[in-house]
Design a protein that fits this description.
globular; about 200 residues; 7 helices
Length: about 200
């Protein structure tokens, strides 16, 4: 469990390569809708890799900027919470959207709402809060999540794939999953005395 807790985002990067290869092999068999959701899943894997490895400073930014923590290496966000929220909520919902595709458009809408929420928070909210012009996760937010979200809704609208019920379920569900994963899970599971501590590379 310790290995997974410290390297789930590295595993995600490997899964991004595997998913990209699978998409390449089956590209002609997939609908444009499923292709966009595949790219959305790959974008999520790379987004987490940027947040926790390439740039890596997302944990301290969340703890210090949003929660004003005096223990930014462990409170309120810690490695255990990061694993549970990103894999348990993010990976599961995005993968489910790919698997069920057109048979559950509401789930695809929910996953895209999460992606667009990440673009908004990383591009605007975090920079405003931190009085900065860049943060870990912003690159994939702008270069991947934004265009993927735009293309997704263009396809759904152009091909008339989503019913009113899909929107009524998908949009609130996406907002709920984003809010739960980004804030509430951190609040619910926080532990000032936790043994789970982020390494030095996850700090500024």
């Amino acid at each position: 469990m310790q290995v997974l807790r410290n390297h789930w985002f590295d595993l995600g990067c490997i899964l991004a390569v595997v998913a990209l290869g699978h998409l390449y092999v089956n590209f002609n068999e997939f609908t444009y809708y499923r292709i966009v959701l595949y790219i959305n899943l790959i974008s999520l894997f790379l987004h987490h890799f940027e947040e926790y490895r390439i740039i890596g400073t997302y944990p301290e930014m969340i703890n210090k900027v949003l929660f004003k923590s005096e223990l930014p290496d462990r409170f309120p966000l810690n490695p255990q919470i990061a694993l549970l929220t990103n894999v348990g909520i993010g990976w599961v919902s995005y993968l489910g959207a790919v698997i069920f595709a057109e048979s559950a458009v509401w789930l695809g809408i929910a996953a895209i709402i999460i992606s667009f929420g990440n673009f908004i928070t990383h591009t605007f909210l975090f920079n405003i809060k931190a009085r900065s012009i860049f943060n870990a996760g912003m690159i994939t937010g702008i270069l991947q999540f934004l265009p993927v979200s735009a293309v997704f809704f263009w396809i759904v609208i152009d091909q008339n794939l989503g019913s009113s019920l899909d929107y009524l379920i998908g949009i609130p569900l996406g907002v709920l999953l984003f809010y739960t994963g980004e804030l509430k899970m951190i609040d619910w599971l926080k532990d000032r005395d936790t043994d789970y501590i982020f390494p030095e590379r996850n700090l500024y």
